[in-house]
């Protein structure tokens, strides 16, 4: 009877070890897909750069919106000082009120920047955790796996190239315009 129990325990232990080995292989593959030592693409830095570009573009657009709104508001204030026609003065007051609403709405940029900053912090923590896992599992073990292609989105097969970052080479608008001349 005890031999039967020992054999059952041995079989169960063997099954669990095989299952654990399978999990470890899957973990290695998933880590390699994101942080492969031989990959030319640093997914975390690339994502952080894209997020930084969003913050910069949002800030630039907000500054342009605010400058144009301030200029419009200033013009409306000047016109209001010179024009004493009731209906026109009321319309100028509406322009000034709408300009103030635009200023208030532009606070989205600050909130967006703060939220994206938190996302980048979380990504940095994840990258640190993955780097630790690479060390624990063994860099050579992960490096032995194939580097996954990175230019396609595995969910829908579309190219994942967007607008080029300032640090990347891109085709200029002048080059694009020249193609149509």
UniProtKB/TrEMBL annotation:
This is Uncharacterized protein. One of its GO terms (biological process) is regulation of chemotaxis. Pfam families: CheZ. It comes from the Bacteria. GO terms for cellular component: bacterial-type flagellum. InterPro entries: Chemotax_Pase_CheZ. Residues 148-174 are annotated as: Disordered. Transmembrane segments: none annotated. One of its GO terms (molecular function) is catalytic activity.
């Amino acid at each position: 009877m005890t031999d039967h129990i020992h054999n059952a325990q041995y079989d169960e232990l063997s099954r669990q070890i095989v299952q654990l080995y399978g999990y470890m292989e899957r973990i290695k593959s998933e880590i390699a897909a994101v942080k492969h030592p031989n990959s030319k693409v640093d997914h975390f830095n690339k994502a952080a750069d894209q997020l930084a570009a969003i913050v910069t573009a949002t800030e630039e657009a907000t500054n342009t919106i605010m400058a144009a709104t301030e200029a419009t508001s200033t013009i409306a204030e000047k016109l209001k000082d010179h024009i004493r026609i009731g209906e026109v003065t009321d319309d100028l007051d509406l322009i000034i009120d709408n300009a103030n609403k635009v200023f208030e709405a532009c606070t989205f940029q600050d909130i967006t920047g703060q939220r994206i900053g938190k996302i980048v912090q979380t990504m940095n923590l994840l990258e640190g955790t993955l780097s630790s896992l690479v060390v624990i599992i063994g860099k050579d073990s992960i490096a032995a796996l194939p580097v996954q292609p990175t230019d396609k989105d595995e969910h829908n097969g579309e190219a994942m190239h967007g607008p080029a970052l300032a640090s990347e080479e891109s085709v200029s608008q002048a080059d694009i315009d020249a193609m149509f001349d």
